[in-house]
Design a protein that fits this description.
This is TolC family protein. By secondary structure, the chain is of the alpha+beta class. The protein is built from ten helices and four strands. The protein has helices at 4-30, 38-48, 50-72, 103-106, 124-192, 198-233, 260-282, 302-306, 326-393, 398-432, and strands at 76-85, 109-121, 286-297, 309-318. It is elongated and about 140 Å long.
């Protein structure tokens, strides 16, 4: 039968194990908010970008503008009040002399308080065209927001690849430094055994110290590039974390006239057609009904004001006759804008096609270059291993061994650069597929 002491020990061990587990899990949860992947940085940048929020607000304002235009079509009510006196001083009975307006003009003054109502009639074509213009403006704002989001994604991705390349270079330098440190102890034993001279070891030791400085510089470079990435994305954390390697994007076909960058020219064409129709609608006769009710009097006395209540109503017609050929000038302005639009669209179409073909060629050449570097890296790694074995027997000089190590490090650096540039090219192709 178990004693109470045994149960206390069992519970104590369980609590101790639970505490150790919480301590080990705690830092993981504390670091769970740190950004490490490209998708996490892109999501944060989309949420924090004030430019994207600005365009989203402008889209909402565009919907409000449509409601304002609908309200303008409803009856408009306005109140008017006036108390204007026109006194006459020192005028004779026969109408001569004195100071003041002529009685036929002044009539003693104007005292009014009335409300007027008006509403356009037969205004359906104008209203529909205004709605189409507002809808076109909303489409332009949405497309501009997509363009801004594409630029944000491009900038974040480019900086992420730069930071990731710096991280890889730092990692390579750390691995090489660790390798040289492990080799340092072995070389000291060989020098003490008389296999190598002290001067040869000093050359190796100088290379080791140089690698320490190079590793520190690589760490600072990575910290700087990581800080720039966080600055662009709007991240607040400052811890030095390791980024995860991004996945290569899919190779999509070149987007045509319906792409985000080309769609703006289609929307510009629609806007120009609506502008031309708006010019035509401005020269249509405009009809509206008007109604007012209240009091108007030329005498401020209560007797006259009490008998001056009334109302009036009718139709108001406006017909444009001549405006100095502004209509033809408006057509000419729209024609010139269309020529500019076609020129931009043609140039961009040619530019995107040339860029896509060039990036495809760069992708193929990058694949060949990476395959060649990896083969050279494999050979360099085998030479370093062979040199390490010969180093123990004194069959290779320390300087020759260092040369092999430096050659291996150079191939590693070249591979990092080539892989990073290949990812840049693939993401550039991906953007052209939007």
């Amino acid at each position: 039968m178990a004693t109470p002491v045994f149960y206390f020990r069992l519970v104590g061990c369980w609590l101790l194990g639970l505490g150790c587990w919480l301590l080990s899990v705690g830092p993981v949860h504390a670091q769970s908010n740190e950004l490490r992947t490209l998708d996490e940085f892109l999501a944060l940048a989309r949420n924090t970008s004030p430019l994207l929020r600005d365009y989203a607000g402008q889209v909402s304002q565009n919907r409000v503008d449509s409601l304002i235009r609908a309200a303008q079509q409803r009856p408009q009510v306005a109140g008017t009040g006036a108390a204007v006196a026109a006194p006459i001083f020192g005028r004779k009975a026969n109408g001569e002399g004195g100071l003041g307006y002529d009685e036929a003009v002044s009539n003693g003054g104007n005292y009014a308080a009335f409300a007027s109502v008006s509403q356009p009639l037969l205004n359906g074509p104008v209203l529909r065209n205004d709605y189409r213009i507002l809808q076109s403006q909303g489409l332009v704002l949405r497309n501009t927001r997509q363009l801004a989001a594409l630029d944000v994604r491009r900038n974040i991705t480019d900086q992420f690849l730069t930071a990731f390349a710096a991280e890889q270079q730092w990692s390579y330098n750390q691995n090489l430094l660790g390798q040289l440190r492990r080799q340092d102890g072995q070389l000291r034993q060989l020098v003490n055994a008389g296999v190598y001279k002290q001067t040869q070891y000093l050359a190796f030791y100088a290379s080791l110290r140089n690698q320490q400085v190079t590793t520190q510089q690589a760490r600072l470079t990575y910290r700087r590039e990581l800080g720039t990435l966080r600055y662009l994305a709007g991240a607040a954390d400052t811890a030095l974390v390791l980024l995860e390697q991004p996945r290569p994007p899919t190779h999509r076909a070149l987007a045509g006239l319906n792409s985000i960058t080309q769609r703006q020219y289609q929307l510009d064409s629609l806007r120009l057609r609506l502008d031309r129709e708006a010019v035509d609608l401005r020269y249509r006769p405009q009809l509206r009904w008007v109604l007012d009710a209240g009091l108007q009097s030329a005498n401020p006395s209560p007797l006259y004001l009490g008998r001056s209540f009334g109302f009036s109503g009718g139709l108001a017609l406006s017909v444009p006759i001549f405006d100095g050929h502004q209509r033809q000038l408006g057509y000419e302005r729209i024609r010139l804008a269309e020529q500019i639009r076609v020129g931009y669209r043609t140039f961009l179409t040619t530019q995107r096609r040339q860029q896509y073909q060039q990036l495809e060629g760069l992708t193929r050449e990058s694949d060949q270059l990476i395959a060649s570097i990896r083969e050279q890296l494999r050979i360099a790694a085998a030479l370093v291993d062979a040199g390490r074995q010969q180093l123990t027997t004194g069959d290779i000089t320390i300087l020759d061994y260092l040369q092999l190590v430096n050659s291996y490090r150079g191939f590693q650096f070249s591979l990092t650069q080539a892989e990073t540039e290949r990812l840049r090219t693939l993401y550039a192709l991906d953007y052209l597929g939007e």
